[in-house]
Design goal:
By secondary structure, this protein is α/β, with parallel strands linked by helices. The protein has two domains: 156 residues, serine acetyltransferase, domain 1 (Orthogonal Bundle), CATH 1.10.3130.10; 128 residues, UDP N-Acetylglucosamine Acyltransferase, domain 1. The chain contains eight helices and 16 strands. The chain has a five-stranded parallel sheet. The chain has a five-stranded parallel sheet with strand order 3-6-9-12-14. Helix 2 packs across helix 8 and helix 3 packs across helix 4. The longest helix is centred in the N-terminal third of the chain and has 23 residues. It is globular.
Length: 319
């Protein structure tokens, strides 16, 4: 005789099976595999070792030369990335009904096209490390930046994912950037285009949208949003420039929000903390929130005191 627990479980299973027949989107069982998140993250970690050959030890392989180590890492990445791309290509209308041979050939071509971009990715990351060192007096050396800075990790992940995004690989770029988001608190869509010498200082709460374009020598602080002015249009806004363009040599301080696809921040602009911007800013401008008023209320025996925060050119939003 079935126990009371078994009866309860059987009843719940029946209810769930019935619920699966309701035709919800989440009920759909696709006739192909889904990408393996753990495999994608493992690929990302191996790519990190290839990008920084002297910083992240390869414990999987017992090798004695850089050439041997990189060879084995690349072989691993090629095998697994081709497999994962082969799975996700079926999400693309172009390959939805393609046969296995077509998928295999496409995955092979995309994998090697992506890997050919690694020297370019490394070139840009080298400038990101330098930008972090030049821009942060708290950095003792570049090793500290490479090993510990969340902004650099999020930027590296974006640079890798962006190349896959440009090759129109579904899902995998987003899995990579959302992994970086989960461990750094920095949310950069893989569609974001980022120039050289990019530095995110502190980083927690940074959000950068898909169609954002960022120039060279840009520095941003925690809590910055480079977002869309409105998402009410939903899917009708797909492939529309929804996020701002940030020109070269711009600094954006903490808590600032810059929104809209037509918004262009000109070269050399400095945007102060908590600014809310929905229109373009001319080259060389300094943008700040109107002087704030501090209120002091000690206790019932003292009157409320108010004082304006004074702006001092020598410490304009320095953090």
């Amino acid at each position: 005789m079935a126990s009371e627990m078994e009866k309860k479980i059987d009843h719940l299973v029946g209810k769930l099976i019935d619920d699966y027949q309701e035709g919800k989107v989440i009920d759909k069982i696709k006739n192909f595999e889904h990408p393996n998140r753990e495999k994608v993250v493992d690929i990302l970690e191996k790519l990190q070792k290839i990008i920084y050959p002297g910083y992240y030890r390869n414990n999987t392989y017992k090798t004695y030369t850089v050439r041997n180590s990189i060879t084995m890492l690349l072989e691993d990445v090629i095998y697994n990335l081709k497999a994962q791309i082969g799975i996700v290509l079926k999400y693309s209308p172009q390959y939805e009904h393609a046969d296995a041979e077509t998928i295999t050939l496409a995955a092979d071509h995309i994998t090697f096209s992506f890997l050919d971009k690694l020297p370019k990715v490394r070139e840009y990351i080298e400038t990101d490390v330098q930008a972090a060192f030049d821009g942060d007096p708290a950095a003792y050396n570049k090793d500290e930046i490479i090993c510990t800075y969340p902004g650099l990790y999020a930027t590296m992940t974006n640079r890798i994912a962006h190349e896959l995004y440009l090759l129109e690989v579904p899902l995998i770029p987003r899995i990579m950037t959302e992994h970086a988001h989960s461990i750094t608190g920095i949310d950069i869509h893989p569609g974001t285009t980022i120039g050289k010498n990019f530095f995110i200082d502190h980083g927690t709460g940074v959000v950068i949208g898909e169609t954002t374009v960022i120039g060279d020598n840009v520095k941003i602080y925690q809590g910055v949003t480079l977002g869309a002015l409105s998402t009410r249009g939903g899917q009708s806004l797909k492939n529309v420039k929804r996020h701002p363009t940030i020109s070269d040599n711009v600094t954006i301080y903490s808590g600032a929000s810059i929104l809209g696809g037509d918004t262009v921040v000109g070269k050399g602009v400095v945007i102060g903390g908590n600014a809310f911007i929905t229109t373009s800013i001319p080259e060389g401008a300094r943008v700040s929130v109107k002087s704030q008023e501090l209120t002091y209320n000690y206790d019932s025996t003292h009157p409320i005191e108010r004082k304006e925060v004074e702006m001092d050119e020598s410490w304009f939003y320095t953090i």
